[in-house]
Amino acid sequence: MSHSRKINVVEAFALSLATMAPTGSMAGNTGPGAKFAGVNLPIAFLIAAVAMLLVAVGFCEMSKHISAAGSVYAYNRASLGENWGFVSGWVMQLGYTVMGVAMCALSGTYASLILKNLGVSVSPMLIGFLLVLLMWFILSHGIKLTSNFSLVTESIALTILIVLSVTVLAKGGGNGGVNLKPFVPTVGASGITQGVVYTVLCFVGFEVACTVATRTKNPKRAIPLALLLTILGGMVIFVFVSYAVVIGFGTNDVAELAKSSAPLNVLAARFISPAMAVLVDFAIFLSTFGAAVCVTNGASYMYYAMGQQGYLPKTLGKFNYSHNAPSHAVHMVCGLDVLLYMLADFTKGNANTYLYYITLGAVCMIAIYMIGCVGSFVFFKKHAEFKHSFLKHDLAPVVGFVVLAFPLLSNFYPVPAFPLNFFPYFVLAWAACGYWMSRHHVKKAHLQKVNDNSNANNNEAAN
Hints:
The protein is an all-alpha fold.
């Protein structure tokens, strides 16, 4: 593959940042987070950022030594063995696939709202379906188009988000004015901790650049840098924007923020104009659709890696150099996305499609991050030849694992409503299936090796 057709560190960063979808994440998670963290929502975002930075350190350190398709699949194969490596990739593959469908559904909702404000009525379900097909087209034309598309869409979305936040602060905010109350703990540790359950979800997807390491220039330098830039950039964006949102609704009473299903739109209409609210909808649409493209690209590279290793049909492990994409894997995952979208959206509606699939995806990814922490910890214990750092190789994965246990346990108790209560157990069953597949694959490979050696010895004896 030509070096010029590989992506650079900025484009790798764009893939991860767009997958996090800062604008879309702020639109969807500020309200739920404020129900618990209240005025201290920025602190909840700061704690989530630190926790995810610790998780990211493990990915960064591993990516400095391992540059292969499959992200955590490749990392955990090296640290925890073939079986747990495959389980990691198997669960991540599920998470990426369903999250792509979820983000297309959410994009369809916002596109429908934009058109409605322009006097055009189109079903969000139909728009979401068309977006899945558009995503298929983009991914089919290679990693350069995918990364550049995500860079443009998220840049536009973030510009609108930052303009809104700066305007809110410049105009003095709401009840209570501009002050530092959001950074002074007042709601108690339990409330802030519960808020972290939601704010940590805003960082899901930061690691997607790892899936395209083999298609990146100087991957052992570019991928760690892209991951750190994503987390640190997300930290600045989320803390600043959440501060502006809390100030905009007013620090004396954040009940309105906690109840709001569209806080960014409310602030846009209140501090700028109704037209700005429509522009915010456009920013959220760009952000969520860009995330759909990037996370589905990650899924296609996961299928590609597993095809290369023989777990899935070998045709999925072939790379199309003329299109600069793992074309068979792209067609596989996008075709699956079409089916999953139709299964949910045309039976349960657009809103439920997003809710169900994003929840399932979040459970998968949190579990993967926790396994990744274990893998990082074990890898550097096993490889004494690498320079050891207590902060990076011991403390970071342990603390990251513990912090992530809170949002994972929240999916078990309090027991969510059906079918959300079913998803954690589905992921466990999916992981168990993956473990069985791996054991069977390893056993089959071992028997094949024994037979090959036996045949070679027989041929040598005959000669």
